[in-house]
Amino acid sequence: MDEELLELQRQFEFAQQAKSSIRLSERNVVELVQKLHELQIIDFDLLHTVSGKEYITPEQLRLEIVAEVNRLGRVSLIDLADSTGVDLYHVEKQAQVVVSSDHELMLIQGEIISSSYWDTVAEEINERLQECSQIAVAELAAQLQVGSELVSSMLESRLGTLIQGRLEGGQLYTPAYVTRVNAMVRGAARGITVPMNLSALWSSLQQLLQAMDGATGVAMDNSFFQSLFNSLVKEAEILGSLRAGVHWTPAVFAAAQKEFVDSFLSQNSFISYDSLQKLGIPQPMQYLQSRYPDGVPLVTMFIHPSMIEMLDAAIEDAIERNSWIDCLTVLPTLFGSQDASKILSLCPSIQSALKSSRALILGESYVLSDGFVKDVFSQLEKEMQTFSVSVSAKLGDEKNTTKENKCGNDSGRLPEPSDNNVESGSKPGMEKGSKKKKGKSGNSRNSASDDLDNQEPVPTKSKKNQRKGKDISASHVSESKKSKEDNVAVPSEDWIVGKLLSLVPEFEEQGMDDQETILKPLANHLRPMLLTSWNERRKAMLAENSDRMKRVLDNLQKKLDESYLNMQLYEKALDLFEDDQATSVVLHRHLLRTTGASIADMLLFNLDAYNKLKNGIAVEESQNSEPVSLSPGERNSIAKSLLGSLSVKAVALVESMEGKRIDTFMIALAAAAEESGLFLKRLDKKLEKTLVHSYRKDLASQVSAETDPVSLLPKVVSLLYLKVHNKALQAPGRAMSVAVSRLKDKLDDTAYKTLMDYHSATVALLASTSAATHDGDEVASDGIPTKKEVLESLMPSLKSLVLGTSQPQGPS
């Protein structure tokens, strides 16, 4: 047998050493393998190695992978590709097959890890854990170069077997360490006596553990403390209630809360929500309602039903006495206005009183009986009568003053000198008093010229003119202003508040000066009632005033027709002096101050009276037939008191009286009359002829009956202008000289000389009278004729000049 074996060895060695006559290249071998594969002689897969010189089957590759994993326990696929010499793609593919067929292997992040490897790691971790009591999972994951979740899942499956510890919040602890921390949590929780947020407690325990463990300590997660705390609560080792997982209320505190609430509510019959919130009760209303179902919740308070009964009795007593009550004075001081309003709505007496209108609630806490309100209203109504009278009299108290006595009205008294020297530039008489010795004659002559300003002929009668319309009743007051008219006589809120303080002294005595509490609400409640009462009285007064309103308008239209026609007649005479600017200005201003002022005063006064009557304001009916004379201030006041556009037109009329031309005044007068619904009758030739004839006749009768020598001259001059120019001239003293001089060419020499002599004597008389008044001297009468006597002697000849009758001559 041995010899045969040796023979075979020699033959094999010879065959190996023998040189083949046929050699195949690597390419031929590759082609040969491909051909065999195509012919399915090789019916299994072959994998090329990286070098390309070797073939390996997938089964062999898997065997090598398994062998490598069994040897190392944890192998990277990249390392397997290097060791097997196969491309990484094939290694990954076969690795997935290997892992799927063996449940103890896992493919994680390009590595194949076996269960034995994790068991070895777990044993190492356990040894380390016993040494340091706690290990962070993140630290282990960093060392093993795997994810924390993978380490946690590996540790959880081996806790209690290979690893003796507890995994909580990313930390691995030993049982002894857990027991120690659990004892700390239990002690801290039992030491809490007030509600506390557990997060703050966990922070304190964390700082304590770090101080105990030093640099080796690991930060502990709050979830670990929370899990220990929850287990202690479940096992009833600590007593209390946990809300929202972190708000802990110990049982001892809850007992103290309950005792405090019971004691306070039983003693005071109320408790505030703020006090419960200070005790740590987050929802005090729900807490109290659950504990005391019979209680009544308010806005900031919780009360016992007995408090409603107490307040109800006080309110019922106040209503029965026709008085008022402030509920806050009955309730405890902690109650606010909102609480008072809520508790009032719960009182039976208030509910019944409001239904029967026997009470009124104001300012959320004030209850006023209907009798009290009516009493205050009746007193305010009386005050309103006084208030309405004061409003109605505000603009009309001094409207009926009479004009000043004109110079010459008293035949036994000489006219006083006038100070109206605006145009001539002289100063008032008081300023000239210190210089009366100097320039006496000049001042006297100036004064004499001024006194002639007031000596104008005013006809006492004129032809009556018919109105062209009868329906002119209230067009100057717009209906859109009705509310404004109502408020004219209705007192303001401040006025009512002041009267309430005087009528009800208790308001001020009890410190209720704060108007927002009761005074303003009560004033707002009473003001519409006062307005209604006022409107009713005004309607009644309007019914009474309707006839008077019609009479006022009728009389105004009648007077306006007469005065406006006279004004147009006088205006035509001003054309004679247009070539003399200075004299024209004097004549225009004189006409504005006399006839123009009279028309404006009459119009404003009657419009004001009509407006008051329409608004229901009492107006005394004047029995005096004298023309109304208003001061500039009164004119402005009345013009501004009118309503709407009429006020604007009236103010423009008043302002036009200060101008230098009568044209502006006439335009403003026409606008104001049109706005008030009145008609201004235009002067035509036929009517002018009639008026001139009537005026001449009336003026002639005045001249014939005139006994005052000074007053005679302007009337004579006016009559002469009527005869010569057929114009009604109204000339003041300052323009008398010019007016007389312009008659020179119209009169014969004798008549003109007579007129000039009379004019000179009149000026001399006025000058001497003014000088005697300033010096305090009497006029001498030593048998020498006085200037007045001289002037009286010339009167018959002057009258005969204009009247055309022979008059006896007086002593020269």
Topology:
Elements: H1 2-17, H2 26-38, E1 47-48, E2 55-56, H3 58-72, E3 74-76, H4 77-84, H5 88-101, E4 105-108, E5 111-114, H6 115-132, E6 134-136, H7 137-144, H8 148-158, E7 166-168, E8 171-173, H9 175-190, E9 196-197, H10 198-213, H11 222-234, E10 240-243, E11 247-250, H12 251-268, E12 270-272, H13 273-278, H14 284-291, E13 296-297, E14 301-303, H15 305-320, E15 324-326, H16 327-330, H17 337-345, H18 348-355, E16 359-362, E17 366-369, H19 370-392, H20 429-432, H21 440-451, H22 482-488, H23 493-503, H24 505-509, H25 519-573, H26 581-614, H27 632-641, H28 644-656, H29 662-675, H30 685-705, H31 709-725, H32 736-741, H33 749-775, H34 787-803
Antiparallel strand pairs: 1-2, 3-5, 4-5, 6-8, 7-8, 9-11, 10-11, 12-14, 13-14, 15-17, 16-17
Helix pairs in contact: 3-5, 4-5, 7-8, 9-11, 15-18, 19-23, 19-25, 21-33, 23-25, 25-26, 26-27, 26-29, 27-28, 28-29, 30-31, 31-34, 33-34
